[in-house]
Amino acid sequence: MTERLKFSPNSVVTKSPDSQPHLSDRASTFQTTIVGYGRYGKNYIGTKYAKNGYFWEIVSIVDPVITSSLFADSILGQNQPQTYLFQSFRQWHDNYFKYLNNQQKARQVIEIALKPELVYEQLMLYIDAGVKHFILPKAVVRNRQEMLQIAEIIHKNKIKAAVASQWYYSDFPKFIKREIQKFIKEKTQKLSLTSSNHSSIPNLYKVEIDFSKENGLAYTTDPPLLELPHALQLLSSIGIIDFNHYCSLPEVSGTNTFVNAIYQVKNIKNKVHVCSNIDMLPNPAIKKEHPLWDIQERRLKIYFDEDNTQPNIEVDFWIKFDYSGDFALRPGKLIIRDNENCSNQEQLVLNIVDDQLLNMNLKIYEAFQQNFVDFQNDQNILSLERYLPIGQQIMLIQNIWKSFKEEKGNSSIINN
Question: pTM for the complete prediction?
Answer without folding.
Answer: 0.87
